[in-house]
Predict the 3D structure of the following.
Amino acid sequence: MIEPKNYKWFIEYTSPEEGHLHGIRTILHTAQTQYQKMDIMMCGSYGRSLVLDGKIQSTETDEFIYHESLVHPAMLTHPNPKRVFIVGGGEGATLRDVLKHKTVEYCMMVDIDQEVVEKSKEYLPEWSAGAFDDPRTDLRYMDARKYLEETSDTYDVIIIDISEPVEEGPAYLLFTKEFYEIVKERLSPDGTISLQAGTTALHQLLNFTAVNKTLSSVFPVVAPYDIPIPSFGLPWGFTLASKNIDPRKWTPKEVDDMIARRISSEPRFYDGIAHLGLFNLPKHIRKAMAEQTKIIEDNSPLFTYH
Amino acid sequence: MIEPKNYKWFIEYTSPEEGHLHGIRTILHTAQTQYQKMDIMMCGSYGRSLVLDGKIQSTETDEFIYHESLVHPAMLTHPNPKRVFIVGGGEGATLRDVLKHKTVEYCMMVDIDQEVVEKSKEYLPEWSAGAFDDPRTDLRYMDARKYLEETSDTYDVIIIDISEPVEEGPAYLLFTKEFYEIVKERLSPDGTISLQAGTTALHQLLNFTAVNKTLSSVFPVVAPYDIPIPSFGLPWGFTLASKNIDPRKWTPKEVDDMIARRISSEPRFYDGIAHLGLFNLPKHIRKAMAEQTKIIEDNSPLFTYH
Amino acid sequence: MIEPKNYKWFIEYTSPEEGHLHGIRTILHTAQTQYQKMDIMMCGSYGRSLVLDGKIQSTETDEFIYHESLVHPAMLTHPNPKRVFIVGGGEGATLRDVLKHKTVEYCMMVDIDQEVVEKSKEYLPEWSAGAFDDPRTDLRYMDARKYLEETSDTYDVIIIDISEPVEEGPAYLLFTKEFYEIVKERLSPDGTISLQAGTTALHQLLNFTAVNKTLSSVFPVVAPYDIPIPSFGLPWGFTLASKNIDPRKWTPKEVDDMIARRISSEPRFYDGIAHLGLFNLPKHIRKAMAEQTKIIEDNSPLFTYH
Amino acid sequence: MIEPKNYKWFIEYTSPEEGHLHGIRTILHTAQTQYQKMDIMMCGSYGRSLVLDGKIQSTETDEFIYHESLVHPAMLTHPNPKRVFIVGGGEGATLRDVLKHKTVEYCMMVDIDQEVVEKSKEYLPEWSAGAFDDPRTDLRYMDARKYLEETSDTYDVIIIDISEPVEEGPAYLLFTKEFYEIVKERLSPDGTISLQAGTTALHQLLNFTAVNKTLSSVFPVVAPYDIPIPSFGLPWGFTLASKNIDPRKWTPKEVDDMIARRISSEPRFYDGIAHLGLFNLPKHIRKAMAEQTKIIEDNSPLFTYH
C-alpha cells in the first residue's frame, strides 16, 4: 500500500464528494486579490502550482500539456494567424505558446486580475518565459467582454483561457451564446477560437456538453477534444470552433508539417499523433454531447454544481 | 469555490505526496482476505466501488471504460478467438466482456483470491452480469503463473487484469520478461495479450514504460494505449501485444465493422473513433517509452515507489 | 513520525479551520432520520461511535467520562432526587447513569428523534444497559420545551443532554433564558439542573460563557466545569445550576461518601478527587466568563460560528 | 453542520488511526534541520505554530497554558530557586517563564537543535520575549544528558521540555530511570523537576503512566497532573517530582500568595484554583497509573506506538 509521506496538504474539491490531494512542500505566496484567492505552492508531485479560489490553474510539471492543447490546434486551424486575442491566461503560458507561432504580429491579452499576472511573472517565470516583454504583446487589465463588444478590431484567433463557472457569479458571462456571438463578430474570415471547457469525466459532463452545444449554435465548425491533465485529477475538455476549417480532417503528417513550418520551437506534448488522440473522443462522451440540448445564454446560465 | 458535502472519506494515495478523495456514502463490506484488505463502498461520485489494499479496482460508474479498453482491442486483434485465458479480474467484468465476443467457446479465469470473487458476485453483480454461470466459463483459484508454466494448453487471447506492484512482494512476478515468455508460449499463432500497465501520468511513467520495454523484448507487436479512468484520478495505461497483427493500422470503419459482427452487445465506450483516441498517445509519453531501457526480470524487479 | 494506517476517515470539523480525524474501521449504520443525519461507526481509536450531523455524540471508549460528568454532580447536588427529567440523551447513557442513583423513583426522558433511540439500542446496547426497560423509565418522543411549558409536574433534577446550536435553527430554543426559566419553574425546592455547554477551548469560548451568563440570570447557583473528552478533540464544558446547594463547597471525602451511599455501581471517572478537578477551572476561562455579558434569549440567539 | 472554509491543511496524526486537522493560512518557514523537520505555520485556529517532525510543539494562542503548567508548579515547589536547568525548550517560552521567578539568578538551557532556537527567535519572538538576551541565561547547544552526567554543578529546578519518543531512536534516553537518576544527582536538597509526559487520553496512557512509574522509582514525591492543550487535540500530561516538598498539599490561597510574591508578571492560566484543577486527576487515570508496572530503562525502552 502506498503511504503518505507529507503532513501538509492542499485539497482541491472537484465535486462536493470528490477531491484531489496534493502534498505541500512550501507555499511561495498567498494573497486575496481584488477578484480571487491566490496561492502559489510547491506541491510534491507537480512542482510550483498556481491555485485560484482553491482550484489548480496549472503546474510546473504538466502545464505544457494544458497550454499546448489549448493553443496549437487553434493556431494551426487558421492558415496564417497574424492577430491573436487572449481572454484570461494570467500565468502567461498561453501567450508564450501563441508567440511561438512565426506568423503572429500582434497579440492582445486581456486579464482582469493584474495581481495574478504580476505574481506569476515573479514566481512562475517559465510560464511566460519572456512573453510579456515581447514587442508583439499588448497586455491589458480590463473586462474582456466589454472590450470585445466595443472594439471594431478583428482577430485571426481568439483563445479563451478562463475557469468555467461552478456557482453563481458573473464569470458565466464569458461562456454564453451572446458572448460567443460577440467573439465571432471580431474574427477574421478564417477565424478560429479555442477554450478550456471543464472536465470530461463522465459524471460531470454538464459543462462540457452545454458549452459545445452553445458553440454549435454560433459556429459552423465545432471540434471538441480532451486530454488528461494529471494535476487536475480528471480528464479535461477543450473546444475549438471556427468559421471555416475543420482540423479533424488532417492526417498526422499534415499536422507535423505545419508544426515544423510554423512553430518556432518544437512542442513537447503536441504532434500529429497526439492530434489524433486529442480529437477522437470516447463514444459515451460523443453520445452525451449529441443528447445535450442546453444552450447557455446571458439569461439562462448553467451552474455546474447547483 | 466547491465545498465538500460529506464527512466520511476514502483516501487513495497514488503516490506518497498525491491522493484522491472519495466521499463515502456507505461501506457495504470490509474484510481482510487471505491475500489483501478488501472494501466495497458506495462512493458519492462513482457508486459502488471495489477497493483492494486501499486502491480502487473499479467502480459502478466507470468500470465499463476500464474493462472495454482492456478486453475489446485485444479480442479484435485475434481474427477468431475461441479460447481465452484471464489472469485476475476478480470482479468478473473482464470475463463478462470477453464472453460478449461471439467466437468464444471457452474462457478460463484464474484468480488467487476466492473471497474477492465471491463478494464481488454478491455486492457488484452487474460487473459479472451472469458471466460466472456461463457454460463457457472455467473459474479456478490458484497461482496463474504456475498454471501457465505447467499446462500445455494454448489460448488465442490472454488478458492480464491485475494490479501493478508498488512495493516489494511476489506480485511483480506477473510483470516480468520470464512471465511474458511463458504467456507467449501458451498463445496460438495469431495470439494476443493485453494488460493494464499503471498510470501514464507524466511524473509516474516508470511502470508503464518499463512494462512496455519488457514486452518489446518478447513480442513482435507491442501497442501501448491510454485512457483516463475518472475514478482512478490519473490517466491509465494499457498494453496490447501480439505475435502478428497490429491493431493500430485499422481505420475507424474497420473497427466498427468488427464490433458489429463480433460483439454481441454494443460497447458503451469503445468504437472506431475511440480506438483512434486510445492508441494515439501524446508525444511526451512516446518519448519516455523510447528512452526507457529497463527490462523487468524475475531477478530484476521494478519497485515503482522505491 | 506517526504515520496513518487507515484510508477511510471520518472528519469532524470543530470549526471551519479545525477538525478531528478518525479512522473508520466499519460503518454499522447510516441514515437520514426525520431530524438529522445519523452514522454509527466503528472508529479505530474509540470503538463504536454515534455521529449526528457529522458531530460525535459519544463513543464506546470514553462515553463514561461524558455521562458521569453530566449526571453525577447534579444528582448529588440534590439531597434526595426522586423525580428526574432528561432532555435529549438519545443513546440512553444519561438515563443509565441517572438510574444508578438509588433514590430515583421516576425518570422521564424526552427525545425528539425516535430513530436515534432505537438504533442506539440496537447498535450501542452498553450505552443504555437495559435502562430503557427499567420500570422507573418513562420515555417519550416529543418537543421537550413544549412539554415542560404545559405540564404542572415538578422534578428534582433536570438534565439537558443536547447538542449546542452551531448555526441557525430551532435548536437554540433549548439554550435561552426563557427556556431556563421554564425549567426552573418545574424544579422542586432543592432542584438542580445540568447540561453540556460546548467546548472550553480558549478560542471557542463564546457558547460556554454565554450559556453560563444566561443561567446566572435565572439561577442563584451556577457551577461551570470542564473535562477533556478525548474523542471530541477539545476540552468540554458542562454547567450545573441549582436553586440552593453549591457542590463546589464539598471536600473529596464528602463526595466519596455520597457516592458510596447513593450510587449503586461505582463510577469509573468520577470520585471526590475528580470532582475537585472538574470544578476548578483555569484562570483564563474564569476570566472569559466574568467578562461575558451576552444573555441568550428567544429573540436574541447566539450563533457560535456566524 | 460546520463546514471547512480552507483548502490547505496540516494533519497531525496522534495515532495511526486518529489525527487533528489545522487549516493553514500561510507557511512562514520550512526546513530540514540537522535533527528534524521544522515548519512554522500560521494556522487558522491557533495562529503561529511550531511543528517539529509533524507534531505541534506550541502555538501562539495556547502556548501559555503549556508553558505555565510546565514551569510554575515546579518553580514554586522549590522554596527559593536560584539555579535552573532546562532540557530542550527550543522556542524559549519555558526560559521566559522561568525568568519571571524573581529568585532566579542563573538559568542554563540546553537544546540540541540550534536552528530551531534561531528560527523561533525570528518567527516566534513572543515565545522567548527577550529571555535569550537576559543576563541570567546561559544557552548551549549540546547533548543535555551527557552534560548532566559530566558536570558537578547542581540546580534547584530542572525542567525537561522535550517530545516523548513515539518510535525507535535515541530520544527515549531522556525518559529513562538512568536519566532521572542523573537528574536527581544534580539537584540541590529541595530540588524539583518537571516534564511533559505525553497525552492522558484514556486510550493512549502508556507513556504517561510508565514515565510516572519510572519517576516513582527514583523520587520520593511524584505529582502527575494534566490539562487540555486545545491545539494538541488531546488532554496533556505533565509530572513534577521532588526530593521533598509535595505541592498537592497547598490551598489555592497559598498558591496565590506565592504567585504574588515570587512571579514578576501575573500568569494567564495558572493560579490557586487552576492548581487544584491541574493536580486532581480523574479516577480512571489514577487507576491506570496505579496498575502500571513498567519502568523505562536504558536497556528497556518504551515505544508508544509499537
